[in-house]
Amino acid sequence: MKGQTPLIEVKNLKKYFGESDRFFKRNASIVKAVDNVSFSINRGETFGLVGESGSGKSTIGKSILRLQSITDGEVLFDGKNLHQMSKKELRDLRPKIQFIFQDPYSSLNPRLRVGDAIGEALLDHELCEKHVVEEKVKEVMEICGLSKDQMNRYPHEFSGGQRQRIGIARAIILQPDFIVADEPVSALDVSIQAQIINLFSKLQRQKNITFLFISHDLSVVEHLCSHIGVLYLGTMMELGSRDQLYSKPLHPYTKALISAVPIPNPTLKRERIILKGDIPNPSKPPSGCKFHTRCPYAIDSCKIEVPEFKEVEKGHFVACHLV
Ligand code: SF4
What we know:
Layout: E1 6-17, H1 19-24, E2 31-42, E3 46-50, H2 57-64, E4 72-77, E5 80-81, H3 87-93, E6 97-100, H4 114-124, H5 130-143, H6 160-172, E7 178-182, H7 190-207, E8 210-215, H8 218-224, E9 227-232, E10 235-241, H9 242-247, H10 252-259, E11 309-313, E12 316-319
Parallel strand pairs: 3-8, 3-9, 6-7, 7-8
Antiparallel strand pairs: 1-2, 1-4, 4-5, 9-10, 10-12, 11-12
Iron/sulfur cluster binds at residues 251-252, 289, 291-292, 295, 297-298, 302, 307, 320-322.
């Protein structure tokens, strides 16, 4: 059941890199990888974080899972501050919060049979007896579209799509409440992407897992996410429900990203908005609105004043002087 209670709350999250260098060296640059980002994810919902490479999406994912420290702000899991938990509390919580990587191969031990790789966390966390592990492994392999006969094979014997299925099986065997999936389909062929997206939809329906789905591709996010946040240089530019963002995008950056999403009907055409230039160096972000150097609608004040991130309709937030 999808609920109205947030499982994850991110409040004014900041993650700066280079702070410690600055202590010794006055001019050392600080990269504000994530700057004052807030959002929440209700139980059973999937929240999509989108933006170009370098926008801070993965840094937010790692900060939520406490795979790295944060500079400021709060991350609450079921009301408890994750970054204030003791090591023991965090270890007890670990099975409930899982991570699916872009490249599952890098997280698989090449010398470990996949059945053992999928089941090892159950034993590490002492979640079941050794003799039951095999049955549980077979069960999740089947859910993830793998054959139980493949248990004794090694990672190199699988295709990219199958390895991603293994990565997903490793995460769901622990019966997590929350999963961060970081670009889980971007390394796959388009036809395989569709299969993995279908697997995620099946897990949403059957397991009531809450997801943070990170992607640079808005067409992928559209199929899975009920709410979406659009990031640019570590700052949230727009946030709203899927319908709000896709049918009425307000921020020029969101409009440009959506204009690149293909329409399945060949008789319909969307006018493509091509952004000029590349994403600026995060250690020297533009003044005022960080997007002004690429925005086709920028006015003089955009170079000076930071736009307020304001709610323009219920649940729909945007940071732009023109909205
Ligand atoms: Fe463009 Fe100005 Fe709006 Fe930024 S504030 S998105 S530069 S119009």
